[in-house]
Amino acid sequence: MNEPLELERMTWPEVDRAIADGIDGVLVPFGSVEQHGPHMPLDTDCFIAHELAMRTAAQGLRDGVRMLVAPTIGVTVSWYHMQYAGSMRLTTDTFLHVVRDVLDSLVHHGLETIVILNGHGGNVPALTVAINHYLETTGRRIPVANWLDLASDVVGELDTPTIHAEEAETSLALALGQRVELDEATRDAFDRGAAVRDAGLPWTSFGRYDASHRGPSVTVPMDMLRDVAPSGVVGDATRATRATGERIVEAFVPRLVQVVRELASTTRAGASAAATGRGTAS
Ligand SMILES: [Zn+2]
Q: How far is the CA of 35 from the centre of ligand 1 (A)?
């Protein structure tokens, strides 16, 4: 077995054998179908999440950590992109049900260690609710790996804001082989807070308008993005380079392999402790 295991490309006996042989973890890519400026296609978050999952699973194989890659969940929380042609969304209510049903399906087959690999910032608040609700109601812990967070040191070295279809995301798309029309890349709403204020929308100087903002802040909801960023880019896509994207990939992939390795070993230890009555869980 030299190829990463992509769940929906396998027959059921193959999946059955893989589970019997021992799977350390399942990666569930979450993307979005939403505008990514004039320079990248709507499937960019799906492409990134799937590609990162496949590369992580391939690295895992080399490192002795066996992973399955689940189907990419494509249409997600993108209501604030609906002013741009082609964007699609689930309502947040529906999305929470989808997350639960997807996780339940994998758990049903005895897959214990599941990690959501999220490629879309707009999913983060709902995914955080979803995984906490999942623990609350099932006792199962499902972590979320956002590439922006797991490669935060590399992204933090950039001196442009990290919001949408900007330097970091465009660089990552380039490195992973997504279609990128660099001639069309643009800079827009570079200071999202100022763009909100200039658009005459409710604004506060303490608002956290940039994912990498640090310091005293209040959390503000997303904006209907076209009100503040006519091109759909929030940040500076013109600064994107394949080399920057490769540094993000090189930071992210081994760390996610480590996450799965650690979770798998501690999950097994917890299960055997519970089986021998040494567990503290009730
Ligand atoms: Zn994106």
A: 8
